[in-house]
Design a protein that fits this description.
The protein has three helices and eleven strands. The chain is of the alpha+beta class. The chain has two domains: 1-68; 72-285, Sortase, Chain: A (Beta Barrel), CATH 2.40.260.10. An eight-stranded mixed barrel has the order 1-2-3-4-9-10-7-5. The protein has a two-stranded antiparallel sheet with strand order 8-11.
Amino acid sequence: MARMWKKTLALMLAVMLLFSMAGCGEEEQSEEQQPVKEEQELPQEESETEQVQQEVVQFGQQIAEAREKNEDIIGWLKIDDTEIDGAVVQADNNEYYERLNEWKQYSWTGCYFADYECNFDSREDLSKNTVIYGHNVHFDDDMDGERFSQLFHFTDQEFAKQHPYVYFSIYDGDSAESEASYSEMVWQIFAVFYTTTDFDYIRINKDYRNPEEGEISDAQLMNIITEAQQRSEYVYDVPVNGEDKILTLSTCSYKYGRRDDVRFVVMAKLVDEDTSLQDTASLTVNTAKKEVELS
């Protein structure tokens, strides 16, 4: 009888211990998991918010700081994974900044300067063809060189595929509240090509001698776009027409010898503000491109 009682008592103690351990396990799991979840989620949300805010105001801040040193600065130009990341200036002619940097100091490599005919009053009032120049001072078209020598990265198909956009934003001027405003803009590349200066791809107004006649027409811009696409190293799957606004980045090239009439150009169209951006460009090699004529 005593032995049976001891067995019964031992069984009851084992059951009680089992329930006690189970309850402790659930309670510890509940208390430990909840704080970990909060620690993982909250910092991540704050980080994402900060990242978005920095992206939105990035160029505006840079333009504002740069304009404190030079009011000729009208915007900021950037291409990912290149050294093209700097202020763009504009003078009342295209010679002033040829051998000056953006701070008006002598520089053989110059700066990024917009054509004097271009308008930068606002995003809506941009010229139909916004043209920006930069030097290539390397006779071997070294893509790792300074300034617009970096554009030659686009001669590499994989690089071109991985970089579908150019980022160029502008200073809009001061608002009624005396606060500076900026237009953050994204441009989608649709052509990269070699050409001679016989192709008037930098045309902005109908007649530079009479700017009051106004900008080129949609049809004239479409002619430029079509010619650029025919000369392009790649066929881009990017719809573009004469009603779009385009960005033209132009530099010298010595691919065909030390000629002074050859240029390398990257062209892109202004992307609507609500457009979802893609990670890569859809392109193929243009096997029927119009070649530069050898002299």
